[in-house]
Design brief:
Helices cover about 40% and strands about 10% of the residues. It is α/β, with parallel strands linked by helices. It folds into two domains: about 180 residues, Peptidoglycan recognition protein-like (Lysozyme-like, 3-Layer(aba) Sandwich); about 40 residues. The chain has a six-stranded mixed sheet. A hairpin with a 5-residue loop joins strand 3 and strand 4. The radius of gyration is 22 Å and the shape is globular. The N and C termini lie far apart (about 80 Å).
Length: about 230
Amino acid sequence: MTIDLTDRYNVPRYQREGTDWGVSRATEPVQALVLHHSAGWYGPKLTASASQDAEVAQIDSLAADHRNRFGIGPGYYYVAFPSGRLYAVGKYGTHRAHTKGRNPASGNWWNRESLAICAMGNYETDVVPEGLMAALREGIAEVRGYTSATIPIYAHGEVPGNPSVSQCPGVNLKTWLAWFLAGEASQPAPPAVDEARRQVYRAIDALDVATVAIAGARGDLEVAAAELGRE
């Protein structure tokens, strides 16, 4: 069952003053659901055994960050965790801050006529946990229940009219979404893909470290050469 925290975040602390965050669903109906990931954690990495208090603490940090950056926090309507818990965090009758650009079909801003679910974690590198899959299925079912059973569902980086160049919600979550839409949502993202990407990132990190070390050594040699030139 979805845990409703919408009243917790529907307060001035998490909404910039001077902006009307309300939206009429009668005149601006929901046209799509967008799937995001947080691309990291707002605190320690949480697993399936995390407590509800630990998860809410991270949503609080996410909300404060989004309020400072975008004017309203959280920028999403739902947040899902590996524990299987799903939190409703944005009022249905508000527009939020999750997807840039306009819907090409209507010309309206996506932030006004789409809803968004955020999976906490980095699913460019991490395999999608079973609990998170369950929470996402619950969120999708809930949104379909009060909008339309055929509402389009997009990965953030693939929303039509979105000018952002983004891999969100990560290759593994995008793979899960494709399987979900094909009726195969019980399958996790392939570990081989995940591990291959991890090896690439490790190699990049190692190269960055080596580059810094080489630059430092070169600087030391140049200083030494300059000192010798003065003798």
